[in-house]
Design brief:
By secondary structure, the chain is of the alpha+beta class. Helices cover about 35% and strands about 15% of the residues. Strands 2-1-5-3-4 form a five-stranded mixed β-sheet. A two-stranded antiparallel sheet has the order 6-7. The chain binds iron/sulfur cluster (SF4) (2 copies) and FE2/S2 (inorganic) cluster (FES).
């Protein structure tokens, strides 16, 4: 039975250390509307100021507070304890598939390097138009781009992906989702390089479509469909005879 919200005590196990380490247990009072991030903050402020973790916005905007909570990657500022505490217990670990800096803080450099590798930034071309582009909201391309544009870079999908765990070279769901939003950006002039970037060994063909990324994304983005879109775009390009 889940402990009643606003009363009782939570048993909180938190990973301490880096790749090598151990779980440390804290007893934290239950509070009404308490989030998992509230619990971590209380541990750090009231019990052990050396605990390392990351957060910034506390409102689901910045993507910095993700952790593994009772075995599943989640954003912690928008996860209520009452949704996840099994028998009044929380087990908090750093995101999987990332190097651990310390405790709950992970190294994000490789994750964002892969966005660059997937050509995940807008390419305006040599002579961008000076006027604002008009992109009808109902157009197919705009709808496809909008479906993935709200990514906050939290790393939850990357942490959940088996292929990332097996293959360090795999670009991963977030970088490929970003590439797909740009493939659908009618103003972008970097499509050929982008499709080249996502068609290599670590690109979209490596995805096995098990959908963990899509099931766990806190922003309800579906990287699996974005990756399927990239596969279609590559096929269409080869049917047109492009290299
Ligand atoms: S659908 Fe593809 S990208 Fe998403 S978790 Fe599975 S293998 Fe990874
Ligand atoms: S696609 Fe979703 S889970 Fe992945 S980084 Fe973006 S917001 Fe986070
Ligand atoms: S603290 Fe910014 S998304 Fe959680």
């Amino acid at each position: 039975m889940t402990a009643a919200e606003g009363s009782g005590t939570l048993g909180v196990e938190i990973w301490r250390g880096a790749e090598q380490g151990h779980f440390q247990t804290f007893a934290i009072p239950r509070r009404t509307h308490q989030t998992v991030l509230d619990v971590v903050t209380e541990v750090q402020r009231e019990h052990d100021s050396t605990l390392s973790y990351r957060f910034a916005c506390r409102v689901g905007m910045c993507g910095s507070c993700a952790m593994v909570v009772n075995g599943r990657p989640r954003w912690t500022c928008r996860t209520r304890v009452s949704e996840v505490a099994e028998d009044g217990r929380l087990r908090l670990e750093p995101l999987r598939n990332f190097a651990v800096v310390k405790d709950l803080a992970v190294e994000m450099t490789q994750f964002f390097d892969k966005w660059k590798e997937a050509k995940g930034s807008f390419e305006p071309g040599p002579e961008p138009k000076r006027d604002f582009a008009v992109v009808p909201p109902a157009s197919k391309e705009r709808q496809a781009a909008d479906a993935g544009i709200e990514c906050i870079g939290c790393g939850v999908c990357y942490s959940a992906c088996d292929v990332v765990a097996w293959d360090e070279g795999y670009l991963g769901p977030a970088a490929l989702n970003r590439a797909w939003t740009l493939v659908n950006d009618v103003r972008d002039r970097g499509q050929s390089d982008r499709l080249d970037a996502v068609s290599g060994g670590g690109g979209c063909q490596a995805c096995h479509t098990h959908m963990s990324c899509t099931s766990f994304c806190p922003k309800a983005i579906a990287p699996t469909y974005a990756i399927a879109g990239l596969k279609r775009a590559m096929l269409m390009r080869s049917l047109r005879g492009a290299p």
